[in-house]
Design goal:
The structure is a single chain. This protein is mainly beta. Helix content is 3%, strand content 45%. It has one helix at 54-57, and strands at 3-7, 10-12, 18-25, 34-39, 46-51, 61-63, 71-76, 81-86, 95-101, 117-118, 122-126. The strands form 2 sheets. Strands 2, 4, 5, 6, 9, 10 and 11 form a 7-stranded mixed beta sheet that branches. It has a 4-stranded antiparallel beta sheet with strand order 1-3-8-7, with no helix packed on it. The longest helix is centred in the middle third of the chain and has 4 residues, at 54-57.
């Protein structure tokens, strides 16, 4: 069973940057598509970004329209890590960010499929 830990959250000013890291332990997650979701207070969890398994399609990435052009998702299979580089941050990016290892190699949409593994989340706060 893979375990996921998110790090890199914190406080950033509007226009600033943060890089989140999702680190896997227990086993490699090279064969899993990896997603980032976020949940703001009082709102439902929402899709942010995803990267396919490099076994499936050389790590194709997907980004929600709200973060496209500002966020970048990438993975380093040698380190068993997935990253979310967040630039030009806005107050509306404030949320708890979760890493999710899907039980599939490919991206299957913006709703998390059942049977995967969640991390515990990391808080991102964007405020002046």
């Amino acid at each position: 069973q893979v375990e996921l830990v998110e790090t890199g959250g914190g406080l950033a000013q509007p226009g600033g940057s943060l890089r989140l890291t999702c680190t896997a332990s227990g086993r490699t997650f090279n064969s899993n598509a990896i997603y980032w979701f976020r949940q703001a207070p009082g709102k439902e969890r929402e899709f942010v970004a995803a990267v396919t398994s490099t076994f499936a399609a050389t790590g194709v990435t997907y980004l929600d329209a709200s973060v496209r052009g500002r966020f970048v998702i990438s993975r380093d299979n040698a380190k068993n890590e997935v990253y979310l580089q967040m630039n030009s941050l806005k107050p509306e990016d404030t949320a708890v960010y979760y890493c999710y290892a899907a039980p599939t190699k490919l991206y299957t949409g913006t709703l998390p499929s059942s049977g995967g593994t969640w991390g515990q989340g990391t808080q991102v706060t964007v405020s002046s």
